[in-house]
Amino acid sequence: MKLKPFLRFGCAPFIAVFLFGCRESENNQKPPPPVTVSHPQEKSVTAYLDLSGTVAASQSVDLVARVPGYLQSVNFADGSFVTNGQLLFVIQPDSYEEQLKLNQAALLQAQSEYDRQNELAKQNATSAANVEKWQSQRDQAEAQVALAKINLSYTRVTAPFSGRVGRHLIDPGNMVGVSGDTKLATLDQVNPIYVNFNLNERDALRISAAMRARGLEPGNNTNKVPVFVGLQNENGWPHEGALDFVDNGVGTSSGTLQLRAVLTNEDKTLFPGLFARVRIPLGEPKPLPVVPNRAVGNDQEGDYVLVVDANDVVARRSIVKGPPTGSDCAIQSGLTLEDRVIINGFVNAQPGEKVAPENETAPASPTP
Q1: Do residues 151 and 160 lie in contact, with contact meaning Cβ atoms separated by under 8 Å?
Q2: Residue 336 CB: number of other CB atoms within 10 A?
Q3: Where does the chain have alpha helices with state H?
């Protein structure tokens, strides 16, 4: 049966409109948004404990006048470095030299008389009591000579160790040592030098566990635990030392454990009173996947990264962050080296939506 002309051509406009509408909807469909992805890099990462501390002298002593007399001279420049045994102060030695001579003369007389009494005793010309008397006087004279030598040595105040001496507190010509010891100056040993710091209970347990994991017993093998120190004006932790002291227990009032590190200080960069940044490694380096810090987000569910699956669909991946590594973030768990992590284009990336991933390009070599 043949169709009538109006039926044959009457549907054509509707078919054309339908096909045109389909093509227009296909043309209006937006392409997936672009994002930049990168595979995590495996790096050797060490867990550290970062703390704050203060620099302190390994030895500090107040130099005092132990005998009375006029201060005769100051033999150093204020704030200078001195060596062990160097002469620093002289306190009126002439009177003590004369006292020593008198005591030595008295000893000679007592010794002579004691010898004479011994000879007389052999001839039964004197009593045993006289011999004992002069022996006692001879011994007392010897003690007086020894005491005079000690007092004379106190007139020369020397450095008991090498270090840095502060300013002198008494000027020459003043009387010192009259009513007790008179403080003259302070001497600090700065090589080696100490850094004191405190740990809370949780971090103290972490360090103890790390030491035992390395076969070290806290308290006996502290010097085998490395400690790195940096000052406020320094990058990183350029000064390396070792743990030197761990207190017996956590203080009940402060809730912290006191520790101390010892460092060599040949260049005298460190000096007492400085604030110091302290870093202690908590074990051996471990290989972990590392991503840029900007790729890591955080919400109510915790830390996460956005990854792109094989179908180019965005997914949220919960992670556990590892030790910090500067501008990068080590991932303890939740990520593999095969994952494609979004590192740029986060605004365009929505979990469950498709994206157009582009691999990160290596940075261009700097122009010579």
Answers
A1: no
A2: 11
A3: 5-10, 12-28, 94-122, 128-154, 201-213
- Average of per-residue pLDDT across 188-197: 96
* Structural domains of the chain, ranges and CATH numbers in brackets: 34-43+288-359 (2.40.420.20), 49-56+189-281 (2.40.30.170), 71-187 (1.10.287.470)
Task: Please provide the size of the chain in residues.
Answer: 368
| pLDDT tens per residue, range 40-52 | 999 888 888 889 9
Query: Maximum CA pair distance of the chain?
Result: 178
Q: Name, in order, each residue with C-beta under 8 angstroms of 285's C-beta and a sequence gap of 6 or more.
A: 44, 45, 46
The Cα 175–Cα 367 span in angstroms is: 72
Give, in degrees to the nearest 5, the angle at Cα 128 between 127 and 129: 90
- Identify whether the C-beta of residue 259 lies closer than 8 Å to the C-beta of residue 16: no
pTM score > 0.85 for this model? no
Tokens representing residue 16 in the block: 């054309």
Continuous segment of H or E residues that includes residue 198? strand 182-200
Q: Could you tell me the CA-to-CA distances from 21 to 18, 58, 352, 353 in Å, in that order?
A: 5, 86, 28, 25
